[in-house]
Amino acid sequence: MTLPTSDRSPTAPAPGFTDAVHAFMTRPQEPETLQLLTPAGTLVAPPEEIPGYAPELLRTLYRDMVISRGLDTEATALQRQGELGLWPPLAGQEAAQVGSAHALRPDDYVFPSYREHGVAWCRGVDPVDVVRLFRGVTNGGWDPRESGFHLYTLVVGAHTLHATGYAMSLAKNGSEAAAVAYFGDGASSEGDVAEAFTFAAVHDAPVLFFCQNNQWAISEPVTRQQRGPLYRRAHGYGFPGVRVDGNDVLAVHAVTRFALDHIRSGNGPFLVEAFTYRMGAHTTSDDPTRYRTQTELEYWRARDPIARLRVHLTEAGHAAPSFFEEVEEQARDLAHRVRREVRNMPDPQRPAVFDHVYAEGHAVLEEERRQFEEYHRSFARPESG
Questions:
Q1: Which residues contact 5 (CB under 8 A, 6 or more apart)?
Q2: Residue 75, SS3?
Q3: Which end of the chain is more exposed for a tag (fewer CB within 10 A), N or C?
Q4: Residue 279 shares a structural domain with residue 360
Q5: Distance, first Cα to last Cα, the chain
Q6: Residue 368, domain extent
Q7: pLDDT in tens, 260-274
Q8: Whether residues 221 and 363 fall in one domain
């Protein structure tokens, strides 16, 4: 739009200026959500027009979503039974995680928050190593260099800066890999995320910011965090952002591939907002019934990401009943293995908490270790004579 110019004082707008500004401010602002597979399991376009559409890929996506949910269900049960100290459920967000993870290349590097169990599975991280962290027997659980999947970050939003710095180093070294930062709608309100957006934009960092907007930052609804669609925040920093149906694994996969192609072409960062829903609690220490309604829950259950893909696989003739039975059995076998290995995990040696505080020995720390060990020996029962 070309606005009229004037030699008059700025305090006296030129004719038509007020109308032009008003028209700009009141133009439609409804967000568009990209979708390829409806909640009823039907495609919005012919298969040949769906990017990456292939029956084998669909079966793989389905398998990984079911296995991810099975792991999540088992880990939640283990926490309730006292075997884990905490667990952040992912139920409902399987499509966002599995669809995006399958769009990555092996040389890409993922910076997760603490709920990306489905991404971890797709990147080859052993689920036993994931639950090991929440049992409290390790400070990490896996080697990030083996999978290109960094350790979980419990400080909300901090890892977006880590991803941005890593991406800047990739660009400096001429790599075609990308960094990917997974975070939630709550983290998007953190200052660290704003700083990451700024640095990524001005340095054209090859980083994908993947936001799983699951509607709730613990007990705070997304409507209390922002006035407009989350994906439009990217536009204010000078890079593109899109919103995708986060319960549509096909759309998530296609959009993530598109975003990564954009990034690998030297165009800088990209923000994907996966519009999804957290079906369970924020963590197992949370009670979502105190702030969410049953009506809201039922609305999102009807949009279950696994159910809609199963319907499509069945109706399109891409999977027989035996396939679904096989997948369920694989999910059960993994859950049983996780339970068995969790119960057999040895407790860590208590003094180990002092081992990696400093790179080298420290006199004060060693004295604290001695006092710590002496304190715990005081609880030992004397041998009976």
A1: 14
A2: helix
A3: C
A4: no
A5: 95
A6: 349-378
A7: 999 999 999 999 999
A8: no
